[in-house]
Amino acid sequence: MSADTATRSPFVLALGHVRRVDRISPSFVRITFGGEDFAEFGDLGDVFDVRIKIVFPPASGVLPPLDRQSEDWWGAYLAVAEDERGSMRTYSVRELRVVGEETEVVVDFVLHLEPGLTGPASLWASAAAVGDQVFVVGPRRGRAVRSGIEYAPGAARSVLLAGDETAAPAIARILEDAPRELRGTAFIEVPTTSDILSIDAPAGVEVTWLPRAGGQAHGSLLIPAVLAHLGDADADAEVDVRDLEGDELLWETPDYSGLGEEITVADAPTDRYFWIAGESGVVTTLRRHLVKDLGVDRAQVAFMGYWRRGVAMRG
Ligand SMILES: Cc1cc2nc3c(=O)[nH]c(=O)nc-3n(C[C@H](O)[C@H](O)[C@H](O)COP(=O)(O)OP(=O)(O)OC[C@H]3O[C@@H](n4cnc5c(N)ncnc54)[C@H](O)[C@@H]3O)c2cc1C
């Protein structure tokens, strides 16, 4: 790490230029961003479920003029009038790679475009073209190892990964970055059979795609599949999806509790690690079953609401 890197902010604010747009399935568009600001972006090879923030341009189409070298770009961003600031949303990195001299960041955007159920990120992604620009915020390379990464199986001998389409890019990246001897199961619920994508998973991890047919609700396949896999006797019962009060996303990991629960360090390494992400009500429902009915210890699980039905995210 250079002395300069060590003293700089652990986050990079990068101007991302769209280099490629690939409509990889009915519900996913894969967008490749490049640009000189990515030279210090992210830790190659250890991406897992790292989260990044993307700022999409406001109605004018013009991003606010931020000094990307400033250590206080966040303060400068907040000082911009709201209607000129654009919209910030959270995404996963499907791939981080160096091509020639340039670092490229690849993001798989879910297209949810139904009137009343769409938002600025999805709309932007649906119309993105080569040359378009966004701001991308992510960890500085070599500066804050594992910053923004929640996947932490420790010495667990097997993993269970479960999520909906918004979690599919993170699950794919986790499985492609994981040691080849990893064992476990992944359940990924997606809108249609044509949204089943290729993942280079370790041979010992069974990946099951759950395509919703004919407008089934989010979680209607994922919840029973996970519960049946864990031997829950209620797996076949009708699923009662209930979220927390308020507008927040559920965020409960072994070392952070959005609910304010006490964090205790596990005495012994856990045998099995669970990583569950997707619509907040669905994840909350799974949490209720895993923690209350199946007695799974919170130190074994990351439960993460990635979006929330009826709620626009605020970054
Ligand atoms: C750590 C993390 C990683 C994420 N990674 C990804 C990723 O790699 N790819 C990805 O596509 N998303 C990802 N998401 C989810 C993404 O941030 C949200 O879906 C976000 O709400 C999209 O912003 P928007 O502007 O399109 O919609 P918003 O303005 O936030 O919401 C508008 C409306 O759309 C609804 N909505 C939002 N998302 C969906 C959806 N997927 N399906 C149906 N309705 C929806 C909301 O309930 C709301 O009613 C991630 C979220 C987190 C927290």
TrEMBL record:
Xref: CDD domains: siderophore_interacting (cd06193)
GO molecular function: oxidoreductase activity
Top-rank taxon: Bacteria
Location of the FAD-binding FR-type domain: 8-146
Gene behind the chain: viuB_1
InterPro entries for the chain: FAD-bd_FR_type, FNR_nucleotide-bd, Riboflavin_synthase-like_b-brl, SIP_FAD-bd, SIP_fam, SIP_rossman_dom
Family annotation (Pfam families): FAD_binding_9, SIP
Organism: Microbacterium hydrocarbonoxydans
Protein name according to UniProt: Vibriobactin utilization protein ViuB
